[in-house]
Amino acid sequence: MRPTEEQEELRSAVRAVLGRHPGETAWRPLTEQIGVAGLAVPEEYGGAGYGAGEVHVVVEELGRDLSPVPYLGSAVLTVQALLASGDPEACARLLPDLASGAVVGALAWAEGGSWEPSAVRAEATAGPGGTWRLTGTKEHVLDGAGAEVLLVAARTGAGVSLFEVPADGTGVDRAATVTMDSTRAQARVVLTEAEGRLVGADGDAERVLTHVLDLACTALAAEQVGAAARCLELTLAYAKERVQFGRPIGSFQAVKHRLADAYVLVESARSAALGASFAAAAGDPELSRHAAAAKSACSEAFSAVAGEMIQLHGGIGITWEHDAHRYFKRAHGSAQLFGPPAWHRARLAADLGLAVA
After folding, report:
1. What is the distance between the alpha carbons of residues 250 and 151, in angstroms, rounded to a whole number?
2. What confidence category does residue 320 fall into, taking pLDDT thresholds of 50, 70 and 90?
3. Is 186 helix (H, G, I), strand (E, B) or coil?
């Protein structure tokens, strides 16, 4: 299967906006002119009612451009967590503004470098009037420093639960973290007896987060494919124009072999990412397998192609002025985001009942 004609038109529109509006300035036109933040939000909550296929197209283009807009953290993680929670009141109250892009959401989830839902150790204790008090530390919170909507996973007596926490409330300390990839905003969120409101059923967030993890890996795989394809595109163009020994370096057999290997990696990763996207769109019960395979394959492909970009560009590839180092940093940062490839292979093996050495 391939993207539909409508999805390709969406791709063209997103690419055109990114071409006209560099960096963070693209968020407003992307949301106001194209409505990207609400693509996967049901119409009853102010969205467009589309699904994973359209999300795939958007994040692939964002990856190609290394765009720093808060799409993954807000329009994927936060939106999908709310939808999966099955809480109609929270969805009706929060999704319309998230869908319009008027506010940005963040899902505070990972702890100790782990995105495994069972690894959540932040605690929530019941207070008066249906309120809760949350204490714990969350890491790698995408767009967490500036988000207006903050969802937090914490453990109660019933298990892992999801809470809405006032982003600037008492007991909430948010700080941007310095990461290798400066194009991906992350934050550390420290909660000290912070007030929260339960979203969904008490003890149900492990199920919610497991589903969100699959959708997050599916979206990230598409982003990695977009970025890897752009690395190959830029490297191929450079190989045609860079002259050594009186001829373009792309004419040398050794360079041709390396470019061909990179092409195979990109297209193989594209197939894995599309497989996960179609599984998500169809509600396939085997989505976890597709998502784990895509995250592993696309992470390693992007890292390898970005490395070749550095190598084949030579000295200019390691200068600050060239984009090669930005793709290289994004590749290695995204490989660890939502869990490294080896962890996802272990998840896949366990799901298939295979032993891992």
Report:
1. 49
2. confident
3. strand
